[in-house]
Amino acid sequence: MSERNIIAIHDLRSPATGAGIPEIPTLPAGTELSPGLLSDSLGRTLRDLRISVTDRCNFRCSYCMPKEVFDKDYRFLPQTALLSFEEMLRIARIFAACGVRKIRLTGGEPLLRRHLEHLVAMLADLRTPDGDPLDLTLTTNGSLLARKAAALRQAGLRRVTVSLDAMDDHIFRAMNDVDFPVADVLAGIDAAVAAGLGPVKVNMVVKRGTNENEIVPMARHFRERHGGQVVLRFIEYMDVGATNGWRMDQVLPSAEVRARLHAAFALVPLDAAQPGETAERWAYADGRGEVGFISSVTQAFCGDCNRARLSTEGQLYLCLFAERGHDLRALLRGAHPSGRPWSDAEIAAAIGLIWQRRDDRYSQLRASRPAETDTPESGGRRRIEMSYIGG
Question: How far is CA 46 from CA 58, 76, 196, 295, 308, in A?
Fold first, then answer.
């Protein structure tokens, strides 16, 4: 039996670099991938799959989709390029057989994808090889959450994470850059709590010189209004993509955020809830809930990163800071050299081979490759935009 070719991986939306298109991985004859856990070249286990359902968003946050780049002339993906719900379901089923236990739906803004609750219902029926349901979650900017929370919960969504960067309406409108009111996002969070999508996580990207004075007001609002039903998490401003003009001096380290918060509300450390967790957890000493700190810049957590990301057009990315993807859509829609469709087992074997070769650890290497000089203009890499593969 000859070797079976696994379709090449590359990001179809990024211009080719000097290195050209990566080599096509091949699956040696007779190779099979048994269902179960996969480990990469650094011993990290695949457990978490993030699926982007759209590359569109109705916000233009400067750290993610700056308006000067994503303007009215920006060409988003055509509908025919997007994976169908059935294709996403098939990929999710294969990943579950490979060890994935958690699926997060992302965007762009995922609630812009029509009939998303239908996809949620399809994914909610999936089971691990042990018969357990997957942990099914979603990240949203909250703009449409008030009207959709109940339907999403009824469809089988377990939890939701909302991105919110300020309580002050003026600051929030400036940061989302489309003049969207904070009150509507807060109403969405209330609706998610009422629907049982909790504990709701609220992610605040802290950008020095922009919204650092919102740290304590954000904490005060959620601990007093929702207590343990909402977990506020502070995220260091990261150098994702190539369009947000990231600079290290705009990063407010988590240690400083925590010190500001601790001065207002005493905090005590908590153990991680599960391996590979991105947030360092702290509880309010008075029992009014907890907060988290995601410190990709100052305290890289690459060492136990267990996440893979699937773009809305079927490109598999192994790191948030990746520059290229692996084309799974070609396997879903293309034909085997024999003329028949690719089987689930063959696609699983391709995923296994890709993951087992994974050695990404960008955040750990950042100190030796300063991100502010690692840009296309300076001859560096062109990292994929966060809006394309979610956070």
Answer: 31, 30, 28, 21, 7
CB burial readout 280-319, b (16+ within 10 A) else e: bbbbbeeeebbbbbbbbbbebbbeebbbbbbbbbbbbbbb
Three-state secondary structure string covering 249-296: HHECCHHHHHHHHHHHCCEEECCCCCCCCCCEEEEECCCCCEEEEECC
Element (H, E) at 191: helix 182-195
Distance from C-alpha of 352 to C-alpha of 316, rounded to nearest angstrom: 12
Q: pTM of the full predicted structure?
A: 0.86
Residue 277 pLDDT class (50, 70, 90 cuts): confident
- 354-368 in b/e form (b: 16+ CB < 10 A) is bbeebebbbbeebee
Q: How far is residue 261's CA from residue 254's CA, in Å, rounded to a whole number?
A: 10
pLDDT in tens, 76-114: 999 999 999 999 999 999 999 999 999 999 999 999 999
pLDDT of amino acid 37:
80
Using the predicted structure, report yes or no on whether residue 152 has a pLDDT greater than 80.
Answer: yes
Give residue 245's pLDDT.
Answer: 53
Q: Which residues lie below 8 Å from residue 323, measured CB to CB, with a gap of 6+?
A: 11, 14, 17, 381, 382, 383, 384
Q: Strands of 307-310's sheet, edge to edge?
A: 267-269, 280-284, 290-294, 230-236, 200-206, 159-163, 135-140, 102-106, 48-52, 307-310, 315-317, 326-327
